[in-house]
Amino acid sequence: xxxxxxxxxxxxxxxxxxxxxLSKVAELQELIPSILHNHRTCCYTKEALMQNAxxxxxxxxxxxxxxxxxxxxxxxxxxxxxxxxxxxxVKEELDLVYRALKVNHKSYxxxxxxxxxxxxxxxxxxxEFTLLxxxxxxxxxxxxxxxxxxxxxRMKGVPINEELQFTTEKINENFSNYSxxxxxxxxxxxxxxxxTGGKEIVQGRLEEEFxxxxxxxxxxxxxxxxxxxxxxxxxxxxxxxxPELNGTWPPHTSELVIECSEEPTHLSITCTCPLQRVTxxxxxxxxxxxxxxxxxxxxxxxxVTVHSEPEVRELxxxxxxxxxxxxxxxxxxxxxxxxxxxDDKSLLLSELTNFTVDIVVAVVPGIVSPxxxxxxxxxxxxxxxxxxxxxxxxxxxxxxEELMAKQLGxxxxxxxxxxxxxxxxxxxxxxxxxxxxxxxxxxILELLKIEPDSxxxxxxxxxxxxxxxxxxxxRSERPADEVEKLQKLQGLLRELTHIDLPHxxxxxxxxxLLILREVVLDLERPTEPQHLSSLLNLRSSSLYTLGCFxxxxxxxxxxxxxxxxxxxxxxxxxxxxxNLNISHNQILSFTALAPLALLPLLRILNISFNEIGAHPIDxxxxxxxxxxxxxxxxxxxxxxxxxxxxxxxxxxxNMNLTDLDLxxxxxxxxxxxxxxxxxxxxxxxxxxxxxxxxK
Amino acid sequence: MEERxxxxxxxxxxxxTGLPESVLAASIAACGKSVxxxxxxxxxxxxxxxxxxxxxxxxxxxxxxxxxxxEYFPHHQILSPRMPSAPDDSVDSDGNSGFQQLAGxxxxxxxxxxIDSLLRLQAEHHVKFxxxxxxxxxxxxxxxxxPASRAEIFQDRSLSLPxxxxxxxxxxxxxxxxxxxxxxxxxxxxxxxERPFVEILQRQNLPPYIRDIILYAIALADQxxxxxxxxxxxxxxxxxxxFATLAxxxxxxxxxxxxxxxxxxxxxxxxxLTQAFCRCAAVCGALQILRMQVSGFLIDKExxxxxxxxxxxxQHLYSGKLITGPSFCLRSVSSTSxxxxxxxxxxxxxxxxxxxxxxxxxxxxxxxxxxxxxxxLQPGVSTLLVIFPPRCLHIRTALVVRALQLGSxxxxxxxxxxxxxxxxxxxxxxxxxxxxxxxVDALFHSESGESQVTDTNSKPKLLWSLCYxxxxxTPWANWGDVGMCCMPDGTLDYRTMMAQxxxxxxxxxxxxxxxxxxxxxxxxxxxxxxxxxxxxNSV
Lengths: 695, 539
Hints:
The complex is a heterodimer. Chain A is α/β, with parallel strands linked by helices. Among the domains of chain A are: 17-158, Protein prenylyltransferase (Serine Threonine Protein Phosphatase 5, Tetratricopeptide repeat, Alpha Horseshoe), CATH 1.25.40; 247-391, no CATH class; 533-695, Leucine-rich repeat, LRR (right-handed beta-alpha superhelix) (Alpha-Beta Horseshoe), CATH 3.80.10.10. Chain A is 46% helix and 13% strand. Chain A has helices at 15-41, 46-58, 63-79, 83-103, 108-119, 126-138, 143-156, 160-173, 178-194, 199-219, 224-238, 393-406, 420-450, 455-472, 479-499, 504-523, 626-637, 646-652, 671-680, 690-694, and strands at 245-249, 254-260, 267-273, 277-283, 286-296, 304-309, 321-322, 330-337, 354-361, 380-388, 414-415, 535-537, 557-559, 579-581, 604-606, 659-661, 685-687. In chain A, strands 2, 3, 4, 6, 9, 10 and 11 form a 7-stranded mixed beta sheet that branches. In chain A, a hairpin with a 6-residue loop joins strand 2 and strand 3. The longest helix of chain B is centred in the first third of the chain and has 19 residues, at 161-179. In chain B, the strands form 4 sheets. In chain B, strands 1, 2, 11, 12, 13, 14, 15, 16 and 22 form a 9-stranded mixed beta sheet that branches. Chain B has an 8-stranded mixed beta sheet with strand order 4-21-17-20-19-18-8-9, with helices on both faces. By secondary structure, chain B is α+β, with helices and mostly antiparallel strands.
């Protein structure tokens, strides 16, 4: 039934039907004014109610009439004192809703009104279940009915297990019923929340569910409802329960050398970290970055503590801000440690030539995801050493070599000692999850043996393998093995692109993320000191998207040329980025570059040979948070000519670019755009054709 | 003493009220021909009739004793009257003892020709059906549900996950085949369709137990399909036939929302089915007379062609064509003593099929058994079908046995009792009897001794049973304007019967449409019980 366009009523409507329709319209037109009048004048006479009922039977979608009905019921209930009379009023009301539902069983207004009436508590609930079984027999997937059923179940207090049995029956009748599967997931979630019998019971239930849903997609692998439910189940097994910290800058055990720069108000910062990379830049303060597995809020002085040894006052009152368009949630949070620079260019704190800092992200209530999930996992911290005023390059090198000599295995974040016990139980839980994943992988492989072209099976296999990989990933594993696994997954995704062409872009995105994980693995391998660099070269890497930002926080120079990027979504995490090359990609509009406006250090931007200006429709515009665009739109409406075209203003007005290469984009031929660009970026060198680029 | 029949000339005279004869009478009458429909007995149905319990008991106690019309059942030989006595409580409080039929088990496919013909003739109001709730196959000493729909495959926990896929994929192939305009799908070549069905199943990765389900429980093969034992090529089901039955089975499952499975059983037994067609014939103007003995046929002296019949009372009735049931047979015309008449006719005396040739097929017998039990084979299910594939009961028993259980819902037995009809197609009576006994022993607990009362085995108790063997005959060679109808055969459904009936019809009336769609104005329907839509009485 899914994926089929709605069929129009067969043929042209006959003359008789047309007349009937017209007379209905005439009737409605006659009724509406008097009902609106009654509504205004609070007239709840018998006649008024009859008229309203007639209207609702003609058109249950007329919401004002339902409101009138509610007021009338309230009025009638107040005017009567007899309980029997109350029951009669409610009964009549339910009959009216029933008649309206017969006209349209998908009327929001009618279902809502019924809930309202039932919530008065004056009618038996059993009859509601009779009604529901009737409606669900006619249309087993009607989500209005399912929603109403959940309401009735809550009202009546039906045990969850009983309701689960009901969904089982419906699924047995026809398993292509996502409404039933969905209700099942809602019920099970509730069951788990209330389950006090321990993890094993919940795990046992989940295993039963896996069994049930497998029966469904082995019978018919083309039915998507089972796969969606399976995906939900898988999420119950492997998804982290809450956000986690997955990256910081400066990285753990890195050494920072801070000195005065040529610019009077800026510091020159050099960071040497155990990945044998040296990042060096000039900024007004030392940025500190935290990256989480999902967007979070509540990152502040209380949830993130910075201990310094010896104690540095400036570090105790940092103010963290979300990086991104949202003022509340972000995956990346940033702050700056500002040191006063004296007139003699020595730092205020220069007497503290050495101090170490522990940034501790604590699992205290406070850091939560948009879904309200608190941060999980052990307390994590990052140790950073600060060095001041050393200008000697040799000294920098020494620090780097020292670090390498340490052969630091722990390049990730360290977990605090106190959480070790907790950690042990987590590993145990992981064993069950790995067991489930192994079983499921085996099942899906069995299905694929029979149905090699099933896109759902293939996609699920990839998800399972990815999940298993992230679970069983251990440092002891040889990187070569990991690379092999990643490449195998990419191969599967490539196959999927052929099987399921309409969704090929999704698969290409997934493939890009795997390529990036390979890059990350490569970066984690020890390299020769001469390769130390803050450049990340991803040229011609078949990327459709960029991810793994938590691993790239250190990047200053990023070459993404000759890929297939359409947007710069998520780039705001790269707070140290100075030089970005995304030439020869598929950027369609300036709005696709909006995240770059949040990069304070970006100076050189190469967006040559993209497709900016080639397409009349800007699909990225919707991705821009509305508060910003509204702000700009209001300026546009206020007649501010400067901001026209507004997207130029939006993206570039706060950038401090020295170079912008636009060569090869059709937009360079629009004098309107170019004029706006020059106005917004007065001190930027614009490259608009190849000859100027040569120059 | 008998009244004379007026008029004396008809387009067609039909002798016998068996199901094929009744279908033909209805169809011919619906074409606007005049029809005289006679039966020598006082009841409708001939071989297809439903007998009351006393009637069947007397049939059992003596094969030619006290039957309403013993001549009707010369082909039936009693094998094992295991009936100590009729169960005391076989008659319910209303004196309703239910009805048994000798030609069981037979079931109609919801989307099959029988139901179609009822709908075309608007005869669906004359008969009610009850749906067979579920089908089972005998596997490893228990009843295993036959998974024959998407929902059933999903719910079946005895199938492995890959087998579910193979089976469902095979069903998809079947529906694709059925829906393709010219009966071809990429996976099946034209020559494939002529191959044995079992070969195609092997090619589809279907494991043996699923092949058994498809062959015997869904494609309804009547005989062993094992290739190594294929001595008789005729019993081998061709792929084309297998696909056709499967497609019909699947289409039947979803035809009527009130019928959960593919099969329907006529309430009160098959006797009601023949009566429904007789009523149709009557509505279209056919004249029906019961208890009308026929003593001979009138034959043209010169051409030896059929002219008419002579009733027992000596009246001569003339018709262009004659249709007879399988019980009627002419003695060889040449050897008959004839009486010369002035009008150039001679009378050939008929006999009850003494000289009909038995079929040349080696499996020309159907062993049948009727059992009465005290509880259902499957708790909570009243009407059900059980298939015993070859060798599932005994390694040497290569016969297919079918059992149909009917409860009080079908109105053929009182509340709390169940009738189980069994049948198997066989080449000799002993083998057939053995196979039926094995099935009966597997299904029921037959000892009635007190010591067995505490038996934890909850098999139904066998209260009464009757086994008999019916020897199949094929109608003798065509004789001009005379059409011969067939006997109830060993198949489960009515397709062979309907096809043979259609052939008879077209031989006699090549120009006419078989079962023309009848439009009867509602007030012309004499029967006022037209309450159930589509003839399906919901369960």
